[in-house]
Design goal:
The protein has two helices and 29 strands.
Length: 418
């Protein structure tokens, strides 16, 4: 028998080992690639399931402040968890999709889709006609009192338009109520905020010049029994600033998505941001303020006639631009001849105005106004149910605008949260 040299045996052994390593590496690579593909498919499916859960949650939006799970048929290792809640006046929906031990979550603010028929005006009926004066222009569907619309005269100025309403007129059945759960949430924020499961932080804004809070975390509450001045500070996300007296928003503040609550709120000249402000006495917005979508200004106060105290009012001055909602909530009365919401000439609101009391509208609105009553104050006189130089244009409002939770309109995404 011919002997094989030791060197040849070593070479053969080396080749076998190399081939074995290559085969093992190939098998490992195939396995890793397969696992990666499965993980990628699961990730894609998780995102899709979370999106589907958001859409499903919008269909079930009546389940306010409620959480529920949806097991998927024949796929017990998958599940969907949906939670409804509120952030200020806006509805919020959170969805978590789970596949085995992996999950992903999505959160969004939601609201009503824009109506198919652009609605400019919904006015309460108090047996008085709507009177249009000056350069008033209403474009879109209008729900008006039974006595209709007519022209009028204020300080020698008559109506200069060719039509009273540039759109169809329908007899009003009254202002649609704000969703009950939304109102309850706002009242809870104002009257009993400490009963909420918030994480507290004492008001020491001088030491914190920047705070960012994810909406996946418990809300951060900054509170004080004294007035709070927000200036040279950046606040963003799931943050509530609460004062028992007053909050002043300064021009050098940068506020995004937060909620500020106080009896009195002043937003100083040239402020820019995107936030919700909720006051119970006065909310004053100075000139040239710019609030981007989705912002909200809210006044919550019942009308009480008093000679001693100043009236509750939400006042928007000249040059203000706001994309979102301006809201006044509270009981009125037949002897209420004061203005609770005052929107000055030269201001522009893109969105919705909702007023349960008296509104003086002299600015421009690109969207819809819902109001119990209009008032005009001119040269010491008060004119009931008058519009004077107001511009209301629903026809050119943006299709993608998502508004207040009124009635049973279809829901849509207002903003994705972080």
């Amino acid at each position: 028998m011919k002997r094989i040299s030791a060197g040849a045996l070593q070479l053969v052994t080396f080749i076998i080992v190399v081939v074995a390593l290559l085969l093992a590496s190939f098998l490992i690579l195939v396995h890793v690639h397969k696992q990666f593909r499965i993980q990628t498919d699961h990730t894609i499916e998780l995102v899709k399931l979370a999106d589907d859960a958001i859409q499903l949650g919008m269909l079930e939006s009546n389940r306010s402040n409620d959480s529920f799970s949806i097991p998927l048929l024949d796929e017990s290792y998958k599940s969907l968890d949906i939670q409804h809640s509120y952030w200020g006046i806006f509805e919020r929906i959170s969805a978590t999709a789970t596949i085995k031990n992996k999950s992903t979550s999505k959160m969004a603010l939601i609201g009503n889709q824009k109506q198919e028929r652009p609605t400019a005006l919904v006015l309460g009926d108090h047996n008085n006609p709507l009177v249009v004066v000056g350069n008033t222009k209403v474009l879109g569907l209008a729900y008006v009192p039974k006595r209709g619309v007519k022209s009028g005269n204020i300080s020698g100025k008559s109506y200069y338009g060719s039509e009273f309403i540039y759109g169809e007129q329908i007899v009003s059945k009254g202002v649609p109520p704000l969703k009950r759960e939304v109102r309850q949430q706002l009242e809870l924020l104002v009257n009993n905020i400490e009963s909420n499961s918030f994480e507290f932080q004492e008001s020491d804004l001088n030491s914190e010049k920047q705070l960012v809070r994810s909406f996946s975390q418990v809300p951060l509450l900054i509170r004080s029994n004294n007035a709070i001045h927000l200036n040279d500070i950046e606040l963003s996300g799931h943050i509530i600033v609460f004062s028992n007296k007053k909050i002043v928003v300064g021009v050098n503040s940068r506020l995004t998505d937060i909620l500020i609550i106080a009896p009195e709120i002043d937003i100083e000249k040239n402020v820019k941001g995107s936030f919700q402000a909720l006051a119970t006495k006065t909310l004053l917005v100075d000139e040239d303020v710019q609030l981007t979508y989705p912002s909200a200004l809210l006044l919550m106060a019942d009308y009480k006639r008093s000679q001693e105290e100043e009236s509750n009012v939400l006042k928007i001055k000249n040059g203000v631009q706001l994309k979102g909602n301006v809201v006044c909530l509270g009981a009125s009365s037949n002897d209420n001849f004061e203005v609770q919401m005052d929107i000055a000439e030269g201001s522009l609101i893109e969105g919705e105005i909702y007023c349960e009391q008296n509104l003086e509208l002299r600015g421009s609105l690109l969207g819809t106004v819902y109001t119990n009553n209009f008032l005009v104050r001119e040269e010491g006189s008060i004119y009931q149910n008058h519009l004077y130089n107001a511009k209301i244009n629903a026809k050119d409002s943006k299709e993608e605008y998502v508004g207040l939770s009124l009635g049973s309109n279809k829901k849509a995404i207002m903003k994705w949260l972080y």
